[in-house]
Amino acid sequence: MMKLMGKKKKSKLDVGIDLDALRNHVRLFDKYDVYTREILKLIQQQNDAAAAVIANSTALASQLKSFSSTISADSLVLGGCTRVIGEHIQRLAELQLRNCNQISGAIFSLKSFIENDLNDLKHFSRQQDSDVQLTRNLRRMTITKPKGEQENLDALYGGACLKVVDTNEKSQFLVLEKLCEYIEEQHIYLKRSYELSNDVLPEIQRYKEQAKRLKERYNVEIEDRNSSAPKQSLFGLPLQKILAREKTKVPTIVTDIIEHLENHALEVEGIFRIPGDQKEIEYIKKILDRGHTIDFSTVRDPHTVCAVLKLFLRQLPEPVFLFKNFNPLIDAISRNADESLQLAAIINIINDLPLANIRLFYVILQLCHKVAHHSDINRMTSKNLAPLIGPNLIYTNDTTNLLVDITSGTRVVNLLFANSESVIPLLEEIISIKEENEVENYEEIIECNDEMSLRDGQIFSNANDRLLPRSKSQKHNSVSKQSLNIATSTSTVNAKSLPNYSAAKLSTLQLDNEQILATTANEILDRSSTSGWFIIGYKSSTTLELQHSGKGSVNELIQYLDDTQVQYAVIRIQELASKGFITPKDIFIAWTGPSVPRIEASKKRSHIAEITQLLKPFHVELSALSKQNFTLEIVIDRAGPLSGSHVID
Fold first, then answer.
1. Sign of dihedral through CA atoms 297, 299, 303, 306?
2. What is the dihedral of CA 429, 433, 436, 440, to 10 degrees?
3. How crowded is residue 249: how many other Cβ atoms within 10 Å of its Cβ?
4. Could you give the count of Cα atoms lying within 13 Å of 409 in the half-sphere of its Cβ?
5. Is there a contact between 317 and 264 (Cβ–Cβ < 8 Å)?
6. Residue 544 CB: number of other CB atoms within 10 A?
7. Per-residue pLDDT averaged across 537-550, rounded?
8. Is the Cβ–Cβ distance between 65 and 30 less than 8 Å?
9. 8 A C-beta contact, residue 306 and residue 593
């Protein structure tokens, strides 16, 4: 205002009028008008273009949804994906329409201001410019107007100045305000678009992974169709062959599935109970059988992953617990009412399994223990898991009474699952001891400069930190005394640590090769050993010899008891004590075969005092006359401190 009226303060009757300043403001308003109109024009063009995009997006969304409803019955994946994309595009179009409407509302008020206020101001300013110029000309001619007319001119000019200032300020804050609203609306639109895209992205990613699997499936089918090479099977392959090929301790498929389930599926309701997608299961099987790998995180349904694990276990040529152990396992449950005795018998049978089988069962038990730990969420207790997992671990090759056998096997697994907190540490101990024994055997092989190792009546060779069974060579045709002599001659065991099985303890009998007996007994009755046995018998009527030995338990021992001989055995078993701990017990058993003549049996029974003196120390002395009731449970029962009999008949 001061700029328009001049710097010098004057009275109302002597107003110094600055016409140039007024003209400068008019020119400034002209610039406002030009630029603001151009900005509004471009924003309007942008809105018009957006409207065309919205119409196109709406049509596209409608077409995608229509396509989805048409093909869903034939292609669930493609139909579902097109539906999701169509709905997403529709939501984006609706959001963009709202944005356009908001921007249109903002620019409408600014456009109205330009069309009305600025135009009026320019017209008013030009009119005032004419009046002021006329006044100046009159003053130059020293022509004065009446006082009242001069005052009217001054008031008119003052009002014009105020209007110029007001309109100037209004145009500034109005343009600034509407441009800020425009940016805010754009921000809201982009932010909401980002949120909508984020919401739908995980589902789109899953469809992308399914598309990847469909592509892989297509490639595999084409490869199968065009390839004449033999398939590299996995399902149905023996466990040891899988481990030898993969150079692993547990099959990769098992470790991958367990890792996936532990990370993503422990809280999934009905895990292991709800069946998976059969087509997907067959596809995964085909992929793995072709030697390809599977990223199980790309498999959308965790129930499908569980089904693949069960299928792999079921298609092993032999179950994890082996066919030969089916009846002993069932006997362990049916012949004992005491759960602790049942569990002890089962643990001893597990201890006889190959190390690879024990490791496999161990990781499965750990997984089921973790699943059951979340049973309040997934509703899968150990009791619920047992009938789903058990038939894939324990079954028989005799299908005459399949339903009863499945139920019996499930009882065994249920007992192990229910006591997993105590069974898992026991398995860890068994695995640790067996691994240490393998290392010791391997060191002995190196020391003998021989690639072969004798263990449990089989020849083993080293392969990638594992001792795996292989065919016997011509150099080692059988497990013989010669093999034992080789091991004895190269052994580095300190003689002071061997049991004192000296022939000097015998009075009427002789002992053939007492050093072999001492070495064998030391290995079996070592502190780290959880099971094992050896048998001595008669080489002649007065000479004893080591006949057989093994690392297993009772069911293995009885295979070497001869119905026509008198034999003497020492066996180590494990008893389940309180709090889940196991304690070793060494038992002496005097065996008299049912076909031994009475006179011979009576004569040889007179040697028992000498023989027990030779084989001490042990915990309990038993006699056995028949294999019919010669089971681990009976041995444990007869060896108990409260047993009424020490005879197995």
1. negative
2. 170
3. 17
4. 25
5. no
6. 24
7. 89
8. no
9. no
